[in-house]
Write a structure and sequence with these properties.
391 residues, globular, 35% helix, Acetoin utilization protein AcuC, HDACs, AcuC
C-alpha cells in the first residue's frame, strides 16, 4: 500500500505563462497552493519537484516535427503553424521548456502510482487536454494527460480510464487513444453545438477494436449541480465497472462553474466538491484506489479555481473541508491586492445544495436526453442495458 497522496508541485511550473491578459493565468495555481496551505490541507505534506519530460516521453504522443516547431517558435516569429502564434496559443519565451515541465510533472505523479510509492497523486498544473499530436490547441502546447497515460502504458499498465470533468470536451486525449482498447476516455462537457471545440457527441464511441472506449456526455448550457451529477452517475460508474481500469486518471477543470467567463454551465463549488468526492469513491471502487488527478481549465481566477482545487487537494488527502470553512484573512489580504476589484469569497461554499435525483430512465429534460443518447451509444458495446436505470 502506497502513501496517502503524492503532490507534485514547484513554483517553476508557473513558467507556463501565455502572457498578458490570457485567460489561463498561472496566478490561479499560486493562489490554490496558498489557500490550501493556509487552511492546513498541506500540513506535513512534502511536495515532489517535477522534472521535464524527455523527448522520448513527448514523442509517445506528439510528432517530432511539432516538437521542433515548439522549440523554434520563440525565435521564428509570430506565426509558425501547428496552432502556435494564435490568440489561444501565443508564443512565449522558453515555451518548449515550460510545456515539457508540465508534462514531466504529470509523468512524475504517474510514477508515484506505478511504482507503488503512492496510491494517489496530483499535478494541479496539468490537465492540458486539448493539444493534439501535431498542433497546439485551446491554451495547450503539450498534452500532459496523454503523455502520462502513454508513459503508464509503456510501464505495463494494461487498462487506464481517463475521466474529464472540464467544461470543454477532452478532445486531445480522446484523439490520442480513440483506437486503443487499453484506454477508456470519458468526458462530461458543454454540448459541442454550443461550445468550442465542437466535438464530444454521444456518437463518438471509439473505433476498430476500441469501440465503446470513448464515452461522451454532452450537456446543455445552464446545467447545474443536480442535473450534472445525475448525468455523471447515470453513465460513469457503469462503464467503469465494465472496463475495470487499473488506474483512474481525472482531468479536473473547474470551468463548469456558473461564474466561469468562458462557458455556460452552472455548477457551484459545492457541486465540484461533491464531484471530487465521487471521483475518490470511483477510484476506490473500480481502480483499486489508484487515482491520478490533474488540473485543467478554470478562468474565474480568484473566486472559483483556488476554492475548487483546494477542495480537490483536500479530497485526495482525505482531509475533506467542510463547505462552511472560512477562508483565512491572510489569503484574502494577499489576493485583494492582485484581484483588480473582484469581490472575494469568504468561505469555501457557494451555499448550494449539490444533492441530485438519480436517473429513472424517463426522458424529461435535455439532460435526460443526453443521458439516454450516451447510454444507447455506449452501453450495448459493454453488454449493458441502456434502458435499465440500475446499470
Amino acid at each position: 500500500m502506497g502513501s496517502q497522496c503524492a503532490v507534485v508541485w514547484d513554483e517553476s511550473v508557473l513558467g507556463y505563462d501565455l502572457g498578458g491578459q490570457h485567460p489561463l493565468h498561472p496566478i490561479r495555481l499560486e493562489l490554490t497552493m496558498r489557500l490550501a496551505r493556509a487552511l492546513g490541507v498541506l500540513d506535513g505534506v512534502e511536495t515532489i519537484k517535477p522534472e521535464p519530460a524527455t523527448d522520448a516521453d513527448l514523442e509517445r504522443v506528439h510528432t517530432a516535427e511539432y516538437m521542433a516547431a515548439v522549440r523554434s517558435a520563440p525565435l521564428a516569429g509570430w506565426e509558425v503553424g501547428h496552432g502556435l502564434g494564435t490568440d489561444d496559443n501565443p508564443i512565449f519565451d522558453r515555451m518548449h521548456e515550460a510545456s515539457a515541465l508540465i508534462a514531466g510533472a504529470s509523468i512524475r505523479a504517474a510514477e508515484q502510482i506505478v511504482s507503488g510509492k503512492a496510491d494517489r497523486a496530483v499535478n494541479i498544473a496539468g490537465g492540458l487536454h486539448h493539444a493534439m499530436a501535431d498542433r497546439a490547441a485551446g491554451f495547450c502546447v503539450y498534452n500532459d494527460c496523454s503523455v502520462a497515460i502513454a508513459w503508464m502504458l509503456e510501464q505495463g499498465v494494461e487498462r487506464i480510464a481517463y475521466l474529464d470533468v472540464d467544461v470543454h470536451h477532452g478532445d486531445g486525449v480522446q484523439a490520442s487513444f480513440y483506437d486503443d482498447p487499453r484506454v477508456m476516455t470519458i468526458s462530461l462537457h458543454q454540448h459541442p453545438l454550443t461550445l468550442w471545440p465542437g466535438t464530444g457527441f454521444s456518437t463518438e464511441v471509439g473505433s476498430g477494436g476500441a469501440d465503446g472506449t470513448a464515452v461522451n456526455i454532452p450537456l446543455p448550457p445552464g446545467t447545474g449541480d443536480a442535473d450534472w451529477r445525475r448525468a455523471f452517475h447515470a453513465v460513469v460508474p457503469s462503464v467503469l465497472d465494465a472496463f475495470r481500469p487499473q488506474v483512474l486518471v481525472t482531468q479536473c477543470g473547474a470551468d463548469a462553474h456558473r461564474e466561469d467567463p468562458l462557458a455556460d454551465l452552472s455548477m457551484s463549488v459545492d457541486g465540484q466538491r461533491a464531484t471530487y468526492q465521487d471521483l475518490r469513491e470511483l477510484a476506490d471502487s473500480y481502480a483499486g484506489g489508484k487515482w491520478l488527478a490533474l488540473g485543467g481549465g478554470g478562468y474565474s481566477l480568484f473566486r472559483v479555481v483556488p476554492r475548487a482545487w483546494t477542495h480537490l487537494l483536500a479530497t485526495l488527502l482525505d482531509r475533506d473541508l467542510a463547505p462552511e470553512t472560512t477562508i483565512p484573512e491572510d489569503w484574502i489580504a494577499h489576493t485583494v491586492r492582485i484581484a483588480d476589484n473582484v469581490p472575494l469569497p469568504t468561505s469555501m461554499t457557494d451555499g448550494a445544495d449539490p444533492a441530485f435525483q438519480r436517473w429513472s430512465g424517463v426522458t424529461a429534460s435535455a439532460v435526460d436526453t443526453s443521458i439516454r443518447d450516451t447510454r444507447h451509444a455506449v452501453f450495448p458495446l459493454h453488454g449493458l442495458d441502456p434502458v435499465d436505470s440500475r446499470d
